[in-house]
Amino acid sequence: MTASPATGSRFADPISIATVVALSVLPFLLLLPLFGAPIERDQGTYATIARGWTDGAIPYRDLWDSKGPLLFLWYVVSFLGLGETTAAPQTMAGLVAGLCVPFVWATAGVLFDRRTALLSAAAFALSFANVYLQVTANGEVFMLLPLTAGLWAFAVGAIGGRLRWFVLAGILTTLAVLTRQSAIWTFIGFGAWLIAVWWRHPAERTRPARAAAALVAGMVLGALPCVLYFAANGAAADLWYATFGYNLSWAATQPFWLKLVPPLVSDPLSLLGGVLFWALALVGIWRLWRRGDRRAWLVLAVLVASEAAAQTTGKGTAHYAIQLLPTAAIAVGAAVPSVAAQLQRRPVAAALAACLLVTLGLAAFAYLQPTVTDRFRVQYTFGDYAADAIDGGTVATAVTRLTDPDDCVYEWGRSSQVFFLAHRAPCSRWLHDRPSEVDASVIDGVLADLKEHVPGAIVVTSDRPLPPGLRDLIDARYALAERVAYAAIYTPRGDR
């Protein structure tokens, strides 16, 4: 949307391309020591739904979770390509992270210059050394590939490319939204930038208006196949409620003040583990602000939108900040030359050295742990979340021992990894108890499912009181068979 044409050929020389290919391997290598770590409850849900999908179940209609459908598809692809193991989606996540590097490089190169492009790509690749961001096989990582590709397409359109680039940006960013709904904030960033251009440059108003229309067209094209698939399987309403309706209701239940706190503040180790990266990003934000042109404002608009996506749910989870990495890395790329020019000043050199020391020290502490389980425990900062995931295998082993292969299992709580690890199908489409916190009537659906599919075991892993109907069912027909870690396992009374 500037007078100059796209300048992609000016930064894509053979040496730069070879460097970017090498950098693309780096995220995989940095995540490799975490492959094979215990899967936590969210990953367990995704894995269970992916397995069910390959067996003919339809997500949301038959197996429910609140994430986007393409996230489950990533798990399906990982299982088909790498085997149905806990390490398969983690390995796929490492590959996806590496594939994002060229798009970060291309975006920075299109908007700025070759040096900024290479520095941005390097910053993005190295950002995965911050294990405290809890980069695993979560939705934020799989979202990054279509998100960074969409940002690159929009950048090409923004500097004078044809309208079809905005259509492509709409398609790709919609795929990111269908992986992790927080990506919808990127559209808000794009829209804010287009409105600013339209407002400040009346002579060019036709162009941003047409670009916005093309972006919307891309959104429709990106969403249409998914909507048609679920509509054809009688699950369109389930898709809408799970991916948007439920999430809006759930976010409304979170304290308002938490929506004002960045996850990097509420989980400070994710900040300290990458303090050099984040400090340089702040300098880069200032540099881009001072630059003040449309290209700089595009990066800033998407970066601000990404931060809003990370904190407006009101849940300070570290890996929510993963969405900031692409545009923050471009800000780092913009900052490095100016910081390097100031290294002769002692305060600057001392501050940079301190940030580097903290970053390297925390990374070394995590990577030097003797086992992958130990590294996982550090990654999740020794919290209950990590302990529950580690003990999940023990719980699943007990469930396998206490049930038959053809039995289905119901779990009241949020330890959905039990289904996947125990190789037992869920008896209810409601895989965890979180929906009942928003809609108490969910338990009626659970009880109906348990009447149709009689559990071979009921596993209670939540501290929340059992709903009366479920409590009555257990008291009448089940007996406590075993307590394992945080789980109470009930099996039918009498002979099986």
Features:
single chain, 496 residues, mainly alpha, 2 domains, 5-stranded mixed β-sheet, 22 helices, 65% helix, 5% strand, globular, disordered N terminus
Tell me what the structure shows:
With 496 residues, the chain is mainly alpha-helical. It folds into 2 domains: 8-366, no CATH class; 384-492. The chain contains 22 helices and 5 strands. Strands 2-1-3-5-4 form a 5-stranded mixed sheet. α3 crosses α4, α6 (139-158) runs antiparallel to α7 (164-177) and α8 runs antiparallel to α9 (206-232). It is globular, with a radius of gyration of 24 Å. The model is unreliable at 3-9 (pLDDT under 50).
Topology:
Blueprint: H1 14-31, H2 41-54, H3 69-82, H4 87-111, H5 114-126, H6 139-158, H7 164-177, H8 184-200, H9 206-232, H10 236-253, H11 263-266, H12 268-272, H13 275-291, H14 294-311, H15 325-341, H16 346-367, H17 372-379, H18 384-402, E1 408-412, H19 417-422, E2 425-426, H20 434-438, H21 442-452, E3 455-460, H22 468-477, E4 478-484, E5 487-492
Parallel strand pairs: 1-2, 1-3
Antiparallel strand pairs: 3-5, 4-5
